UniProtKB/TrEMBL annotation:
Keywords: Membrane, Oxidoreductase, Transmembrane, Transmembrane helix. GO terms for cellular component: membrane. InterPro entries: NAD(P)-bd_dom_sf, Sc_DH/Rdtase_CS, SDR_fam. Pfam families: adh_short. This is SDR family oxidoreductase. It comes from the Bacteria. The keyword Plastid does not apply. Belongs to the short-chain dehydrogenases/reductases (SDR) family. Signal peptide: none annotated. GO terms for molecular function: oxidoreductase activity.
Length: 331
């Protein structure tokens, strides 16, 4: 067991599937004490039971993060069970894909409520606890959509830009408290059920492309922030590339991203329009993975693929340098 994670009290929202479930299992393996939150009570309990089998203490607290009182009750439940809260991970998230005007304002409002207000509710519930005990780590799962605007996901982008700004403001407020940290994680495209749980009003199927990362990659980022808190970290080089591109050339970046997504939509197969799980939970999508890598025949996370390519490139360069050195030595 890692001594820096074992016995820490960790709250995770959106823990019933995808990144949240992967994070729950990762922290359970390290001996954390877990308070898990999501809307699907039966599935949430299944995750808690799995964490218990891994040797961790875990409780399931069914919670809708758009309800501020419910989030406050979540914090209270964690304190009753474990005496304190050391880490709070605002992971619950959703989105609407398609032309902005094609979705009802209720779907756009729900996206803002879950992604931005849900995280604000979490911060409001836990920061007084952190301040009283003198320490704590607040982690927000933001997305590359908080660094560069995502076309055909306007409400999602608004919520993620807002969340990044909210976190930055909190960091400034808490600057005098050296042991309280506000961290942001910015994943690239991740293989989770969230791609199906979101609303899709485009009339076209979603294709996340070949550069798709595993939920476990994000869970590992959460763990690393508990060990070494930092303001912002990316998961996947496309997220960092989007940040740099938008910072250096916002106009061309917007133009290229818009053109790319419009072209992809034009070529995509037709699909029914759906509200996903925005307004009410659904039974589908209960695992860590969304199955997208399997559908595409990708055996690895894009992270592993990128690492393999990088290692192969380094090996090739080393071989080339070695061959040149050998040739010089023979002269």
């Amino acid at each position: 067991m890692s001594q820096d994670i074992a016995d820490r009290s960790v709250v995770i929202t959106g823990a019933s599937s995808g990144i949240g479930r992967a994070a729950a299992l990762a922290f359970a393996r390290l001996g954390a004490r877990l308070t898990l939150a999501a809307r699907r009570a039966d599935l949430l309990q299944e995750v808690a039971d799995e964490c218990q089998r891994l040797g961790a203490h875990a409780i399931a607290v069914p919670t809708d993060v758009t309800d501020a009182r419910a989030v406050a009750d979540l914090a209270a439940a964690a304190r009753r069970a474990f005496g304190s809260i050391d880490v709070w991970i605002n992971n619950a998230g959703t989105g609407v894909f398609g032309p902005y005007q094609n979705a009802s304002i209720d779907l756009h409002r729900r996206t803002i409520e879950v992604n931005l207000l849900g995280s604000m509710h979490g911060a409001h519930a836990v920061l007084p606890i952190f301040l009283r005990q003198g320490h704590g780590i607040l982690i927000n799962n933001v997305s590359l959509g908080g660094w560069a605007p995502t076309p055909f996901a306007a409400a999602y982008t608004a919520s993620k830009f807002g969340l990044r700004g909210f976190a930055a403001s909190l960091r400034q407020e808490l600057g005098a408290h050296r042991d309280i940290h506000v961290c942001g994680v910015f994943p690239a495209m991740i293989d989770t059920p969230g791609l199906d749980h979101g609303a899709n009003v485009s009339g076209r199927g979603i294709d996340p492309g070949p550069l798709i990362y595993a939920p476990e990659d994000v869970a590992e980022a959460f763990v690393s922030l508990v060990r070494w808190p930092r303001d912002e970290i990316a998961v996947g080089w496309p997220a960092r590339a989007a940040q740099v591109a938008y910072a250096l050339a916002p106009g061309p970046t917007e133009h290229l991203m818009g053109a790319f997504v419009r072209r992809a939509l034009d070529r995509a197969e037709r699909a029914p329009r759906t509200e996903g799980a925005l307004l009410a939970p659904v039974e589908t999508g209960r695992a860590v993975s969304g199955g997208w890598r399997d559908r595409k025949g990708l055996p690895f996370s894009a992270r592993q693929t990128s690492t393999a390519i990088g290692l192969a490139t380094l090996a090739g360069l080393a071989a080339l340098i070695g061959a040149r050195s050998f040739a010089r030595a023979r002269r």
